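Notes from the 1:1 (GR / supervisor)

We went over the backlog. Supervisor wanted to see one worked example end to end before approving the batch request, so GR pasted a single chain during the call. The sequence is below; no edits were made to it. Supervisor asked that the structure be written out right there so they could see what the output format looks like.
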Amino acid sequence: MTNAYSDPDFMRGDEARPLRLLSEYLEPRERLSRLNVHNGLIFWGSARLNPNGDDPPSDKADFYAHARELAARMVQWTMDEHAEGERYYVCTGGGPGIMEAANRGAADVNRELSMGLNIELPHEQGANAWVHDNLNFQFHYFFMRKFWFMNIAKAMIIFPGGFGTMDELFEMLTLIQTGKQPRIPVVLFGKDFWQRLIDFDVFVELGLIAESDLDLFYQADTVEAAYRFLTEALSEDVTPTARRHG
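Structure output shown during the call:
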């Protein structure tokens, strides 16, 4: 005989699903509290965008390099401007591509500010090599992972990505639009990609969103424009809305 919580067959079964969900809430909550982590700069983007070379072709923007540089600059900014308990952590999905680039940029300056919220997927490896061990989280449930992204998010930077990135972007915009999430600065990086992919003005033309909803995000094409927007917004504790494009 053994206690139910020591029985692996029971803990992996359908009946114990509520316990598994609860564990993905309680363990990150305890660890983040213990480490005094409250401020996250969330970087989202494709796991398939690697450094320029054969993939992606060299005629495409090197989003990997941009994500790495922006993350490094944001970490240097918070190191210069904030006391230890008030610093911002670069937080990604923990995987390859843009996620790796942002964690790598953070680690270039201070690895202790590099966090990853990884997800179990059949065809992707575990956390990238630049996530700090203490800040390496593993999730099974997508919605619990997104809960923790939003719980610590103080700003979001979204690079080009696929279905997963779009899912995260529109859920986050919905939460901000409906007041379920406090207003935070949001950067869509790579204007050509976003303008080709989504005609946001159509939402307004058809009366599906308010024109003011277009001010929920800022489109940037350079690291300098994104850095300036983020640091101004976070320093003033308000989100600039006068400019939608950088």
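Supervisor's comment: The chain has nine helices and seven strands.
Batch request approved.
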